[in-house]
Amino acid sequence: MHKDCEKILFTEKQLKKRVREVAESVDATVQGKRPLVVGILKGSIIFYADFIRHLTAPVELDFMVVSSYGSGTVSSGKLKIKKDLDRDVNGRDVIIVEDIIDSGFTLANLKQLISERGASSVTIVTLLNKACRREYDIRPDYNCFDIGDEFVIGYGLDYDERYRSLPYIGILKKSVYSE
Ligand code: IMP
Ligand code: MG
Fold it and tell me: What is the best residue among 64, 157, 168, 171 to mutate for testing ligand 1's pocket, by most ligand atoms within 8 Å of CB?
């Protein structure tokens, strides 16, 4: 375990099993369709790569880079689109793949934006859900794991751009960000 990690929440094995289960459920709902799978970079990158490999429907891949955070652990309350989609979502079945829903600010804004652009459907798939922190009215259609009010790292998730490559999800030691 990494020295800045207080505790491992989900092991590589648990992640693999649960991501497969969720992906298979989503896949069953998109048979006969050609969904556009939108990954929210960078946090979702590892989840996204594992998730799409269990889809049998013909998918198209696209990505957005947005930020509501600076380098800290608290949302700054303003969504910035740093990289927009390449594809037109009008008339498409869109699956948004996100790493974690915290306040819900990012996804509430994104879901509205993609709906306004004329998507036929918008499905939200998240790896982690911190429901206890919700401030905006948004719920994932699919969620791999519920977690409490802890700051987590690994499997794509970062603190100040660190720890994304850890193969497991762990709780970051408070001493790392309260120093
Ligand atoms: P929201 O807009 O408040 O829902 O925040 C969502 C974004 O905050 C996620 O996409 C993450 O990038 C980031 N975030 C929230 N909680 C955590 C955490 O525990 N670890 C790492 N990133 C987090
Ligand atoms: Mg993110």
Answer: 157
